[in-house]
Amino acid sequence: MYRLVEFYTSGYVEADVVESVASSLRRALGLEVRLAGSLTIPDELLDSSRRQYLAEPIARLVFNYKSEGAAGLLVADVDAYVPGLNFVFGLAVPRLGVATIYLRRLRLWTDRTNYVERVVKEVLHELGHVFGLRHCGTRDCVMSFSNSVFEVDRKSRAFCRSCALKLGKLGIEVSAEFVI
Ligand SMILES: [Zn+2]
Ligand SMILES: [Zn+2]
Questions:
Q1: Are 21 and 123 in contact (CB under 8 A)?
Q2: Neighbours of ion ligand 2 (CB under 5 A)
Q3: Is the dihedral of CA 30, 36, 41, 42 positive or negative?
Q4: Using N-to-C axis directions, what is the helix angle for 15-29 and 112-130, rounded to 10°?
Q5: Cα 160 to ligand 2 centroid, rounded to whole Å
């Protein structure tokens, strides 16, 4: 199981977002977080007709950057999608050990404090997938599926007991502060 997360950014990612994500991962899951710098998403990954990037090749890009044995996390200032969906807030590819988060839509219709909170929730959610969790039917659980920013706002940043227990069995101890 991953103990280290290499945290990449792309484009303009606010300093308080970087700080909150890194500190939340350390506190919630006891992970070591290494700020790994900025990476450039190549223009070929832009679908110009939609003005959105393709999320799956971006995950492969992060996989190519990250160290073996570390999970890779990318927070990117772009809008992205996977074929069949209008957009994604994030995409995890567990077999690559990669989680990606896209900020453009998370910034909409809210204040700064709640925006940062949304990013933290989506990072915990996508890394939860990387660690082997599936979507959860408990509405407050951070592993519940969100189709809109309002659904992101409605869930908490914490894991339900069942998801926390699963993570514990996988070797990731969830701190009490991040269990509902
Ligand atoms: Zn999900
Ligand atoms: Zn859950």
A1: yes
A2: 136, 138, 141, 143, 160, 163
A3: negative
A4: 50
A5: 4
Distance, CA 129 to ligand 2 centroid (Å)? 11
Q: What is the dihedral of CA 141, 150, 113, 74, to 10 degrees?
A: 70
Q: What is the mean pLDDT of residues 138-155?
A: 97
pLDDT tens figures, 8-57: 999 999 999 999 999 999 999 999 999 999 999 999 999 999 999 999 99
Domain that holds residue 25: 4-133
Assigned domain for 121 exists: yes
CATH assignment at residue 116: 3.40.390.10
How many CA atoms does the CB half-sphere of 116 hold within 13 Å? Answer: 13
Predicted confidence (pLDDT) per residue in 107-133, tens digit: 999 999 999 999 999 999 999 999 999
Query: Which residues carry out catalysis?
Result: 126
